[in-house]
TrEMBL record, chain A:
Any matching Pfam family: Mak10
GO cellular component: NatC complex
Organism: Nesidiocoris tenuis
Major subcellular location class: cytoplasm
Protein name: Protein MAK10 homolog
UniProt keyword annotation of Cytoplasm present: yes
Cytoplasm keyword on record: yes
UniProtKB/TrEMBL annotation, chain B:
Lineage, uppermost ranks: Eukaryota, Metazoa, Ecdysozoa, Arthropoda, Hexapoda
Organism: Nesidiocoris tenuis
Position of the signal peptide: none
Domain Sm: 21-99
PROSITE patterns: SM
SUPFAM superfamilies on file: Sm-like ribonucleoproteins
Tree of life domain: Eukaryota
A Pfam family that the UniProt record links to this protein: LSM
Family listed: Belongs to the snRNP Sm proteins family.
Record's protein name: Sm domain-containing protein
Length: 715, 115
């Protein structure tokens, strides 16, 4: 403690910004001449709407001006100032801010409000408008109250850790996170261990105090509330420290998740005891209740003039619930480091990503998968991971142990080169899972370019190895092994790209038919065939292994035939059928004029089609992109048929999907949801097929509440 | 003041009614520093860029000053950048007619000297 106090003067937070005086104003004296009446006289000559300006200045520039005296834009307006804002030291002087003997109830209030601010910051607001509205955080080391001081220092540490996660995770965008610290020094020179020890000391001290209490139930409950809060931040800090270590291993991650579980256990206590806090200092019209020690406008002048004026700070109970959710997500993403296979990790990350996690859990997920986070430095490990991934996917003969193919130096070189080229697209795919959902779409489009090149190379490597393997004895053909593997991923990226349009609500209903058509007619079909191919390759290899084993050990072991991709194939078949059902239903809706169409004068389906499939059309060779004229050729025949027939065939598709989904063993939540969607749509289309509501022109409704991508049709 | 004369000439060509005196006056003030007192006691200093019939004023590179006599407290000036002041909030306007002090002018002179 002594070293901390000795240095306390050096912890002062520097004045966050130099005083904003324009340089040329400083040494210049003006000679002001009043022109008010002249000016108001002169403008009378202007016509209504006429602007007087220089050649270089136009209406466009004028649009970006901030409007003075508009309470939403003008931060300097009196109503936005309210009252004078005291700097920390002045507030102490005037005894507005207590810095010693802060009562327990006030401490509860300050801690709870600080958490509210932290959670609001994590929602993408600026630190200046959230956490640093807490005046105690401006100079935590000057605080005389030990528990509040330990808490404030720990908050600094936590913010610093979170910022570090996000900065190293490299998956944030400006809409996710505000890294600006406005000149506050986040890292007061207290080592991490010391910060935790401070909390520990305070916890012990408070516990001692509690034991000395005699028959003071109110005070005891307040003490319990403060102790719980200190304990909570201590556990959280320990967990985050653990996760931030550079040399992280599954054991230490397990330790951290245990700590986070303990944090989660404390949440109900914190929520129930937050009612013990002192009442707010005052209630502001704009900012709502303001806790003692907080000033929502203290940093107003640090913000750019056009900054959003007010930040809605969450309530403490909401904040604690959000923290609980965060701990849950971190526990989920931390499973990623116990996964050894690339595909399993990718699946987990895709699954996590579809639940739209927050930036902290997304960043931690990235860091846990690639702990060094220098993605280049980790290339060697990553090549091994990719080699394993390709081997488990389709077991290419060249990657099998004792493969004769590798004795050929050229084959070896080609293989290494190909695997090296795999690193970037695949690590991009991993990184993409960390980005927010809207950004994922644009990144998927770029990723397709990389995969197109990779596909080309994979096919050439396959061809070379195949020609080589023909010369070898007793070798399996090497036809399209890597090709199939890359194709599988390309198709998944394509499907993700198209489906993300539904999730982001980019498509109009009149566009649905060709999106579903593309998915139904091509992507899912190709995906299934690539999986079946991999399946048969693996079985072939398995048989070969068995044969070898039998030869060597002469021991017959009847192994159960497993088709490793059976489940994935079935799921994709179901999805293909559902897309078919949607497609046919959409065509029928169009025929029945149930879908509002854009005005024909402004509509060109081809332009829309080309735009929607642009990333496929411009870059891909394999799988071949389907052009608009091909789409027209293939679909005109179907569009001639009667709408009732279309409903009925769509209905059959959903029926098919349903029966496939029902045969999947151990259905997870997604399969169950899809099953419900398929069943409902089956009934709806069946009704429509009988001519129900045939005459009504009211458009059908597409309800995406059950699944991001596959809607329930409602009529 | 050669620059502002030049401006006057060029803008004259563009103005629709060349004889209009008020407009010429406004044109001559363009890009000069104005000091605008606002109804809430703040003072804005920036270069005059644009106006219209309702005296809505656009000032570039604008700085906001607090008049402590009116507002009751003092603060450092603040840079606002491009600002539109609605005409109804303007209390008074002052023009800076001190000669040759604007950075642009001195810069222009220096470059002229150099060549």
């Amino acid at each position: 403690m002594a070293d901390v106090q000795a240095n306390q003067e050096t912890y002062t937070v520097p004045s966050p910004m130099p005083s904003p005086v324009m340089p040329f104003l400083m040494d210049v004296s003006f000679n002001w001449e009043p022109i008010t009446s002249e000016f108001f006289e002169a403008i009378k000559e202007l016509k209504l709407g006429e602007l007087l300006h220089d050649d270089l200045f136009g209406l466009f520039e004028a649009m970006s001006a901030i409007e003075m005296m508009d309470p939403k834009m003008d931060a300097g307006m009196l109503c936005n100032r309210g009252r004078e804002h005291y700097a920390y030291s002045k507030a102490i002087e005037l005894k507005i801010l207590k810095w010693e003997e802060v009562s327990l109830k006030e401490q509860i209030g300050i801690m709870d409000t600080t958490w509210s601010c932290v959670v609001t910051w994590l929602d993408g607001h600026s630190l200046a408008q959230t956490v640093f509205t807490n005046l105690y955080l401006h100079k935590p080391h000057r605080l005389g109250d030990r528990s509040l001081k330990a808490f404030c220092v720990a908050i600094y540490k936590l913010i610093d850790l979170i910022k570090d996660f996000v900065a190293r995770g490299l998956v944030f965008e400006e809409e996710d996170f505000q890294p600006m610290v406005y000149g506050y020094r986040l890292n007061p020179d207290v080592p991490e261990v010391r910060s935790i020890a401070m909390l520990k000391e305070v916890e012990d001290e408070l516990n001692r105090k509690k034991r000395q209490l005699v028959d003071e139930p109110e005070l005891e409950q307040d003490l319990n509330a403060v102790i719980a809060r200190i304990r909570f931040i201590k556990l959280m800090l320990q967990a985050f420290f653990g996760l931030s270590k550079k040399d992280i291993n599954p054991n230490s991650v397990a330790e951290c998740t245990k700590l986070l579980s303990l944090c989660s256990d404390l949440i109900p206590v914190l929520i129930s005891s937050s009612s013990r806090s002192c009442p707010p200092h005052y209630v502001s019209e704009i900012h709502g209740p303001v806790m003692v020690g907080f000033d929502p406008l203290v940093n107003q002048r640090l913000l750019p003039p056009t900054f959003p004026r007010y930040t809605h700070i969450k309530t403490p109970s909401e904040a604690y619930k959000r923290l609980d959710e965060l701990f849950g997500r971190i526990r989920q993403v931390s499973k990623v480091c116990s996964l050894t296979s690339f595909h399993a990790a990718l699946e987990l990350m895709l699954e996590v990503s579809s639940s739209k996690p927050c930036i902290v859990s997304r960043s931690i997920m990235q860091l846990l998968f690639l702990p060094q986070c220098s993605r280049a430095g980790d290339t060697i490990n990553f090549i091994d991971a990719i080699r394993d991934a390709a081997r488990t996917f389709i077991s290419p003969p060249v990657l099998m142990p004792r493969s004769g193919l590798l004795s050929n130096p050229q084959a070896k070189e080609y293989l290494e080169c190909f695997l090296g080229h795999c690193v970037r697209p695949f690590s991009n795919l991993i990184q993409l899972c960390g980005h927010n959902r809207a950004r994922q779409r644009e990144k998927l489009a770029h990723l397709l370019e990389d995969f197109a090149n990779l596909q080309d190379e994979a096919e050439r490597v396959d061809a070379f190895l195949h020609s080589l393997s023909k010369k070898c004895e007793n070798a399996r053909p090497h036809l399209a092994c890597f090709g199939t593997w890359v194709l599988y991923h390309t198709l998944r990226v394509m499907i993700m790209f198209l489906l993300s349009g539904f999730e982001l609500e980019l498509y109009s209903t009149h566009e649905y038919h060709y999106i579903f058509w593309y998915l139904y007619e091509f992507l899912y079909g190709w995906l299934i065939s690539s999986l079946s191919r991999a399946d048969s390759f693996l079985t072939e290899q398995e048989n070969l292994n068995d044969a070898n084993r039998k030869q060597r050990r002469n021991k017959s072991k009847t192994k159960k035939k497993v088709r490793p991709y059976a489940r994935e194939i079935m799921l994709n078949q179901a999805l293909q059928n559902m897309c078919g059902g949607y497609y046919k239903a959409m065509v029928a809706f169009k025929k029945d004029r149930k879908i509002p169409l854009p005005h024909p004068e402004f509509d060109c389906e081809q332009v829309r089609y080309d735009h929607r499939f642009a990333p496929f059309i411009n870059v891909l060779l394999t799988p071949p992109p389907v052009q608009y004229n091909e789409f027209r050729e293939m679909t005109t025949a179907l569009e001639q048929s009667d709408s009732r027939d279309l409903y009925n065939t769509g209905c059959k598709h959903f029926h098919q999907a349903r029966s496939i989904l029902e045969t999947i063993h151990n259905p997870d939540q997604e399969v169950n949801d899809l099953l419900r969607i398929a069943k409902t749509n089956f009934i709806v289309l069946k009704l429509l097929g009988t001519g129900h509501k045939h005459d009504s022109n009211s458009p059908p409704d597409f309800d995406f509440s059950l699944h991001h991508h596959f809607p329930i049709i409602k009529i | 003041m050669s620059i502002s004369e030049g401006q006057l000439n060029t803008t004259e060509n563009h103005s629709q009614i060349p004889g209009s005196f008020g407009k010429m006056k406004l044109q001559s003030w363009l890009n000069k520093s104005l000091k605008v007192d606002m109804s809430d006691g703040r003072v804005l200093i920036g270069s005059f860029l644009c106006t219209d019939r309702d005296a809505n004023l656009i000032l570039g590179s604008c700085t906001e000053y607090i008049n402590p006599k009116v507002c009751g407290f003092n603060e450092e000036p603040r840079i606002l950048g491009l600002v539109m002041v609605p005409g109804r909030h303007i209390v008074s306007i002052h023009l800076d007619n001190s000669q040759g002090i604007s950075n642009d002018d001195t810069l222009a002179k220096k470059t002229m000297d150099a060549t």
